[in-house]
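Structure ticket #2291
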Amino acid sequence: MAERVCFVLQVRPEKVEEYRRHHAAVWPEMREALREAGWRNYSLFLTEAGQVVGYLECEDFEAARAAMDATEVNARWQAEMAALFDLGGEHADAAMTPLPEIFHLD
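Resolution: structure written out below.
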């Protein structure tokens, strides 16, 4: 059974437009790496205040995250995104803490 994962992150409010621009043109090799690592139905939503809500489905979130962490393209992407967050040096993908699911219709 697929694991459903939802998480929140906070983009620096002054960096919201830059974050939006980056995600309007995600590198093809990044998209492919996510697919190969088992990230399915991956979506990001962004408020004007900079709150990011992410959702994905995978077989095992920790394994899917580790698979991405092992790729060179993810290291480049995370370095590019680092200035958009205030995570004390932690990359955004490492800061993704799944929210507990409390209801699912099916």
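Closing remark: The domain at 3-84 is CATH 3.30.70.100 (Alpha-Beta Plaits).
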